[in-house]
Amino acid sequence: MTSPNAPTATSRTHRAPRVALKGSTGSPFARVLGFGSYRPRRRVDNEEMCRIIDSTPEWIEQRSGIIERRWASDDETLLHMCTEAGKMAMERAGITGDQVGAVILATVTWPVRTPAGGPQVAAALGANGAPAYDQSAGCAGFCYGLTQAEGLVRSGAAEYVVVIGADRLTDITDFQDRSSAFLLADGAGAAVVGPSDTPGMGPAVWGSDGEASGVMGMTPTADGSELKFHMQGRDVFKWACTYVARQSAEMLEKAGIGPEDLDVFIPHQANNRIIDAMMRTLRLPEHITVARDIKYQGNTSSASVPLAIERLYDDNLVESGQTALIMGFGAGLCYAGQVIQLP
Ligand SMILES: CC(C)(COP(=O)(O)OP(=O)(O)OC[C@H]1O[C@@H](n2cnc3c(N)ncnc32)[C@H](O)[C@@H]1OP(=O)(O)O)[C@@H](O)C(=O)NCCC(=O)NCCS
Fold first, then answer.
1. Which residues form the Beta-ketoacyl-[acyl-carrier-protein] synthase III C-terminal domain (predicted)?
2. Low-confidence ranges of the chain (pLDDT < 50)
């Protein structure tokens, strides 16, 4: 029986407001104006890794494509890495701290739950006072951030937005778990998104699958003493190679381009074999440049896409004006991506 006090659905009548408000208007379009990155100093090759876990260098390379990864030292804190990457992106975009309209920090490894890292990063970038916040979308975090940044620039909520993807995955790695420890690494990447007269970013394709959230994330270690990152690698692998790969095809479609129009493919650096499977699904032509930063960097979660972009610039494999498909996928489960024009 329904209680007499139970709320009932009512439809509200919208009356004409008594006063008119000013709305916000931003730039017609947005684009990435500059990228930046920070790669930790310490290289850990597969030989060294196999002194920690029960594996072989050959197995690791064959199953993941990784030959070495970067681990942050104590002085390479998340704040330090974010600041270095953010400053580099701002310098390349030609903006100073006082021009920053918002800072979005994508991370799953900020050391405390509150206060958030975003405001501290904003302060370190000379942008104290700017709106700044953290977001948790796993390895999709950077692309989630770019999507929000585009919206902020186009709505007029901010003129220039610094998006940072940074993680110290070694802080949450279970070194007793040989199926994930060899994949995880540390680093930071950043981008400045700003106004543009022409489209510099295609529409995002993004989403989540909370019903499958148990596939990866923080769970107790075997002895139950700590929460560390664990995953069901095979399930993640299948999801990425099938569902996420199909979503990537939609990213091209939404931007109004075909695979033959693409110059560069920069997927999340989770596993070389996932990248290969995605290329097959997308039917990418041979001549396209494909990011393979995984080989020397490992999986850095939200930093992986901007770090991979940075290596392509360093190796002179990409140039300004080229059209790139970028995408990330990971814990949540979350995925996001878009076609962008490289700065
Ligand atoms: C983790 C991953 C590399 C494992 O590769 P795989 O080919 O799927 O291997 P499987 O999980 O099927 O395991 C195969 C065997 O290797 C063993 N194995 C696991 N880790 C090993 C290691 N480091 N060294 C040697 N053998 C290992 C397993 O125990 C298993 O043995 P079994 O067949 O006797 O049970 C792969 O699943 C992967 O990359 N998944 C995606 C993970 C990821 O990127 N997550 C983050 C996304 S953001």
1. 252-341
2. 1
Which is the catalytic residue, given 46, 82, 143, 268? 268
**334 given a catalytic annotation:** no
CA of 296 to the centre of ligand 1 (A): 19
Residues 6 or more apart in contact with residue 280 via CB below 8 angstroms: none
Domain ranges, residue 40: 29-196
Could you report the per-residue pLDDT of 288-325, keeping only the tens digit for each? 999 999 999 999 999 999 999 999 999 999 999 999 99
Residue 136 CA, ligand 1 centroid: distance in Å: 25
Measured from the Cβ of residue 130, the count of other Cβ atoms closer than 10 Å reads 22
Contact (Cβ atoms closer than 8 angstroms) between residue 133 and residue 104: yes
The rounded Å distance from CA 174 to ligand 1 centre is: 15
Based on the fold, state whether residues 68 and 172 are members of the same structural domain: yes
Please tell me the distance from the alpha carbon of residue 245 to that of residue 38, in angstroms, as a whole number.
28
**Atom 37 (ligand 1) nearest CA:** 233
The DSSP 8-state label assigned to residue 183 in this structure reads T
For the question of residue 241 being annotated catalytic, the response is no
Asked if the structure places residue 10 within a domain, the reply is no
Neighbours of 197 (CB within 10 A): 9
